[in-house]
Amino acid sequence: MAASSAGIGTLLCKNINKQIEIFYPTNRRYTWCVIRRICTSISRFRCQGQIKRKSAPKELVGVVGLEVHAQIQSITKLFSGSQVRFQAPPNSLVSFFDASLPGTLPVLNRRCVEAAVMTGLALDCVINRKSLFDRKHYFYADLPAGYQITQQRRPIAVDGTLTYSHLGGTRRNTLITKSVRIKQIQLEQDSGKSLHDDRRGQTLIDLNRAGVGLMELVMEPDMSCGEEAAAAVRELQLILQALGTCQGHMDEGQLRVDANVSVHRPGDPWGVRTEVKNINSGRNLARAIDYEIQRQVGVLKNGGTVQNETRSFDRKSGFMPEPNLPPLIVYDRPSTAPPCVHPSQVVVLEEVRAGLPELPRARRTRLVESYDILPEHSFTLVNEDGLTDYFEAVVKETKAGPRKVIGWVNQVLLGLLHHHSLSVSQSPVTPQMLAQLLNLQENGQISSSVAKQVFQELWRAPGKTAQQIIQEQDLGIVSNTTEIHRICQKVVDSHPDQVQAIRGGNKKVLNKLMGLVQKETKGRADPVLVRSILEEKTS
Amino acid sequence: MSVVNYTRTLQKVILNIGPRCYHRWVTTASVALRIRDSKQNFRCRLWCGLLTPVHYQYSTEGNTSKVPSVATWEPVLENQLPPAKQVPADLVDKLERLALVDFPNQEGLVCLKKAIRFADQLHVVDTEGVDPMDSVLENRALYLREDAVAEGDCADRLLQLSKDTVEEYFVAPPGNIPLPGREEC
User: Fold this and answer.
1) H/E run at residue A63
2) pTM score over 0.90
3) Could you give the count of Cα atoms lying within 13 Å of A439 in the half-sphere of its Cβ?
4) A108, A202, A338: residue with CB nearest B142
5) Most-buried pick from A49, A308, A534, B138 (CB within 10 A)?
6) Contact A142, A210 (CB under 8 A)
7) What is the pLDDT of residues A38-90, one digit of tens each?
8) Do A262 and A295 meet the contact criterion of CB atoms below 8 Å apart?
């Protein structure tokens, strides 16, 4: 593959004539401003291996590290007994502690500890048996106390791995598996929400979100492009949803991802990092990261230097141990817990581990093993919400093999769903309807091309059953041999030069004749029969 | 303080001894044994009905508090302290930003330097092999609360506390007000 003039060896340029909003790093925490609307061609980084050529200088590669804040799915907040709810009247879910009124103290929520431990175990982390709470001081209007209780020094879980996959390769149908190291998982408080009213020069503060428990997952910078980052975040979303610790809706702010992006030449020290914040979907994440990498490469190629615009980056000051909270102890086994303590006061690792549900990667392996499908298929099944259940429901009710069903589900159904931007639960074709259709095809009542037509009809008019559509439009398979003989003869007679070519040895022209026959019969003829008759007639 | 069992007579005796006694009325009788421990403290061992030994400490008459009568601390000399560190101007700026404290003039800086010198006395203490303590609650058990709603729904009371509110929102000035630069001081 020839290297483009931009110097990035495996760059593939795609012209996307869309307006794209780019979220730019700003000084303000959790406020974003659209810097510019851009009509441009975005170069998509395909994350393929670098072509090593001794004569050319090393190319610049991107280095991406993610910081994910996942809102813990609990009934109450991390340190107070007020409710956690997505939309509520402003300041109605605020307790005295959340408003930092003097005299209030934090009381830790057991559910949040269990959630953090479950997430740590699912990501193969080492759980710190003793973890400490700290205060991180900074001034901002949505942080009434002036500090955030977090776990910087000794977090609850360290040293884990997130293994993710994405479809790559030339035709995007090869499963590429990668992993990224997780530096730490810590419990921390969320801040309130601020609405900026620039016209009147004031900020409106809503503390409903203040104090909600967050799990901050800090990942090492092991990724190199936006696609990998998006795939990693998707896998993390699936894991958290399977565990039930976080619902993972990026658009509702339950999963917030900040990306630290820099570029360097392999072997050289890392370049200056910039932060990309406040992204509300996986696709925007990939685009924003790729844009930032491209921007930094452009700056460096023009001889400039990348400016780090986010202040207090990786700050080491402003931390103080939280004096109101003793260390958090997690016990290995029920026997190691202190004897005279109530069971509701101890978190036992063994019990949490036993309660872990089926994780996405186990689910994929199970699908591959029980249905004998490819890993790529099971990846698509698990990646799309509800598709696995759909697939299993169809397989149960139809006598067609899983491999056939996979083709229908992953390509036909999913293609239509994406085209109409629907989720699996909104599909007009239910698993039962698809199962019926496949049964009709298996029984030989309709051909495969007709089946696809009927599927389209079912999509458009879901009230009818497959049988009804077949009867109405007379799409049943034509197996009347005399009829087929007649049509084949007609075709053979009207295309003598093709027949000559076949007799001469070119067998591929037979397909063209078959196509003509199918057109005559409106796709209803049994293809096997047609082929055998045509072969007979042209021999 | 531990539970201490008394008879009525003993109660009176102990009241005479001094104000630093903690006691509670209980019904079981007990026998008190007094063992003279040191010149200044008695250790009183009381056996309650369940034969559980219980300790408490109280002081004798005359010396009513633990505060010594003569000062026992020694002043730290200037030569015992590590050399005084200079405070550069940008560090002062950083401190002003982090703590939102204003050091407007030379007097403020002198005060800051004195404060730092005072805190330097901590370096005299030998902490070799001692783990830092970050909370006096180190040995306590962290209480884990059940995940059930118990608070909230007091927006009106909270909003009353704020000077400025707009339709159930608190009002704050936009973003962070940047501190004036060094030249503007």
Assistant:
1) strand A61-71
2) no
3) 15
4) A108
5) A534
6) yes
7) 333 444 555 544 444 444 567 899 999 999 999 999 999 999 999 999 999 99
8) no
